[in-house]
């Protein structure tokens, strides 16, 4: 089997999950999030674009219900022993197959937690599932149960996070020589992704963000490439990925002499991220991180140019996003604990002056100060 962790690691994860299920008095969990299945069993596929679920009972037994195309995938990449196939057919309703399977597993009238908040659960599937199970069992929204267990990384996971961070650094090293007047965004992207793949990394869970000129103010990928001008700005957000574990970075790089506004915004980003480093430690919360960000940005008169979040937890994620549920935004009471991998980003988009500035990389929390995982300093980059 193509497993990235040893048997004891997976056994510990299953014990943690069943312990939480016992606390919530759950007889079973229906996992629809691919990252939950991957974390728990090693199961690695993009087949979650179709219906599939991993049933985990309170006694720790597991059964995967999936399509025939993923049968061998599950056998090869996971430790799941019991795999049941639902058959592709006209007007197929795999939730009916699921109900019958749950009945065979003696779960009629049980209390079952379901992962609803995931890209592996479409609205149509949710409606079909609720229709099948409403009179069959007690349904509980347990969308974040496994997600919260995944927040704190084991030493084996941290090794993959560190490798992902090294690959992210390699990507920036590959890009920098190409960022110049006349440089091609396509070549920059190819060099960055190529460095990660050549280094043994994976495709990221979402597209790298690249934009120059006015597009440097965008926070999402879009189609279309541009050639850099003599005076330009290039915003990049990317992540190294190793065994699906991500470490993200973000920079706005200036072509030519940085403007006064670029320097002002960079100073605000740098001051804020350094202040966050004093908060990104046990005893504080995710909300405290955001309040530090908002306070400094607002004191500098940048309230209308900043975002309403300044980072998030990272881990093993699948497309369409490498972002975890837990984000740095106002009111988030999630405690910061040691051994979390957290991406902190400063994003200032001044549309009035058509000026962008971003700064960010991934940290590993400790019992004290956080450890930056990038070898690149947080300096203003100008080419």
TrEMBL record:
<dbReference type="InterPro" id="IPR000994">
    <property type="entry name" value="Pept_M24"/>
</dbReference>
<keyword id="KW-0645">Protease</keyword>
<dbReference type="InterPro" id="IPR029149">
    <property type="entry name" value="Creatin/AminoP/Spt16_N"/>
</dbReference>
<feature type="domain" description="Peptidase M24">
    <location>
        <begin position="161"/>
        <end position="366"/>
    </location>
</feature>
<dbReference type="InterPro" id="IPR050659">
    <property type="entry name" value="Peptidase_M24B"/>
</dbReference>
<dbReference type="Pfam" id="PF00557">
    <property type="entry name" value="Peptidase_M24"/>
</dbReference>
<protein>
    <submittedName>
        <fullName>Aminopeptidase P family protein</fullName>
    </submittedName>
</protein>
<feature type="domain" description="Creatinase N-terminal">
    <location>
        <begin position="13"/>
        <end position="152"/>
    </location>
</feature>
<keyword id="KW-0378">Hydrolase</keyword>
<dbReference type="GO" id="GO:0004177">
    <property type="term" value="F:aminopeptidase activity"/>
</dbReference>
<keyword id="KW-0031">Aminopeptidase</keyword>
<dbReference type="Pfam" id="PF01321">
    <property type="entry name" value="Creatinase_N"/>
</dbReference>
<dbReference type="InterPro" id="IPR036005">
    <property type="entry name" value="Creatinase/aminopeptidase-like"/>
</dbReference>
<dbReference type="InterPro" id="IPR000587">
    <property type="entry name" value="Creatinase_N"/>
</dbReference>
């Amino acid at each position: 089997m193509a497993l990235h962790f040893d048997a004891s690691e997976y056994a510990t994860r299953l014990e943690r999950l069943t312990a939480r299920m016992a606390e919530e008095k759950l007889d079973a969990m229906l996992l629809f999030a691919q990252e939950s299945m991957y974390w728990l069993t090693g199961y690695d596929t993009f087949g979650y674009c179709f219906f599939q679920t991993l049933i985990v009972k309170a006694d720790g037994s597991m059964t995967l219900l999936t399509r025939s195309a993923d049968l061998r995938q599950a056998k090869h990449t996971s430790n799941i022993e019991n795999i049941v196939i639902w058959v592709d057919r006209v007007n197929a309703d795999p939730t009916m197959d699921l109900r019958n399977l749950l009945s065979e597993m003696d779960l009629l009238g049980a209390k079952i937690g379901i992962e609803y908040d995931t890209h592996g659960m479409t609205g149509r599937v949710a409606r079909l599932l609720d229709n099948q199970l409403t009179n069959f069992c007690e349904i509980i929204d347990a969308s974040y149960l496994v997600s919260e267990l995944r927040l704190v990384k084991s030493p084996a996971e941290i090794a993959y996070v560190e490798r992902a961070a090294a690959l992210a650094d390699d990507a920036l090293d590959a890009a920098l020589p190409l960022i110049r007047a006349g440089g091609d965004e396509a070549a920059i992207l190819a060099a960055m992704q190529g460095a990660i793949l050549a280094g043994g990394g994976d495709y990221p869970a979402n597209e790298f963000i690249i934009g120059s000129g006015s597009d440097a103010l965008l926070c999402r990928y879009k189609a279309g490439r541009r050639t850099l001008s003599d005076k330009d700005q290039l915003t990049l957000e990317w992540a190294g990925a190793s065994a699906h574990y991500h470490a993200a970075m973000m920079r706005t790089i200036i072509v030519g002499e940085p403007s006064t506004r670029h320097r002002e915004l960079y100073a605000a980003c740098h001051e804020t991220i350094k202040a966050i480093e004093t908060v990104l430690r046990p005893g504080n919360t995710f909300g405290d991180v955001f309040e530090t960000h908002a306070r400094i940005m607002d004191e500098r008169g940048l309230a209308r140019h900043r975002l309403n979040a300044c980072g998030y937890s990272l881990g093993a994620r699948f497309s369409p996003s490498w972002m975890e549920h837990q984000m740095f935004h106002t009111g988030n009471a999630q405690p910061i604990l040691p051994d979390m991998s957290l991406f902190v980003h400063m994003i200032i988009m001044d549309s009035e002056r058509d000026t962008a500035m971003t700064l960010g990389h991934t940290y590993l929390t400790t019992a004290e100060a956080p450890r930056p995982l990038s070898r690149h300093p947080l300096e203003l980059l100008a080419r």
